[in-house]
Amino acid sequence: MYKEIARNKRRTIILMVVFVLLVSFLGWAFGVYVGEPAITPYVLIGALVYALISYLAGSRMALAINGAKEIQKRDNPRLWRTVENLAITEGMPMPKVYIMNDPAPNAFATGRDPKHAAVCATTGLLDMMSDAELQGVMAHELAHIKNYDVRLTMIAFSLVVVISLLADIMIRMAWFGGGNRNNNSNAIFIIVGILAAIITPIIAKMIQLAVSRRREYLADATGALTTRYPEGLASALEKIGHYGSATRVQHTATAHLFFSNPMKGNKLAGMFSTHPPIEERVARLRGMGTHESGAA
Length: 296
Description:
By secondary structure, this protein is an alpha+beta fold. It contains ten helices and four strands; from the N terminus they run H-H-E-H-E-E-E-H-H-H-H-H-H-H. It has one domain.
């Protein structure tokens, strides 16, 4: 477990280094285009400031666009105590607790570290799950926070947003710009901007797939070890597989945060889903339960 946390922290550093290099290149291209190469450091500083703001506000944005509302213990004692007990068991700070008014059984976690984290459950999840099943789902979400999965993902996508913004500015300036710039420099500038605009969403999806699928299996295992009852989480997954987890609010930008895929399913979407198949997740959890029974 500690190896996975350390690996996530290393990946965060690698992402930051790649981001600095890429933004520096875009800033240099921008400076050459306007005839002021010395502008590159200012572009880099501006991009870093924007990325920092996106990173700090990312958690609140994810909660806001999904319509999540913060609650206190008196608002829903069952959910609050479930999260509180799990946080105590894991030795973690108590995260903020949110509820999302949606009939689909689902949940998600967000935040940049365990001290600045939040968990959210849909009303459908609360209505459908038994106490053991709810505990399994929320233990899974706390595992994402403990393992720093949510921080890695938030940083990755805040950086992608910045690169996309710079690419868009470059394309617009080259397309609508004029002055002393010749057609060749315009063409080169447009090509660089278009390449950046095409590459960034591909990078975003690759990060989602690489991080999310592996993280889901690890969070399932961590959650099962926390509750010491894999069957609770396996049963919750089976219910979700039967009833469906597609939420009314559809946001591809936050889909990877959810316990189960919140997007409306089809074959093409399944191929690029950030979540592994529910059947495979259930099988792994049931395997854990069988192993424990055999050991006993």
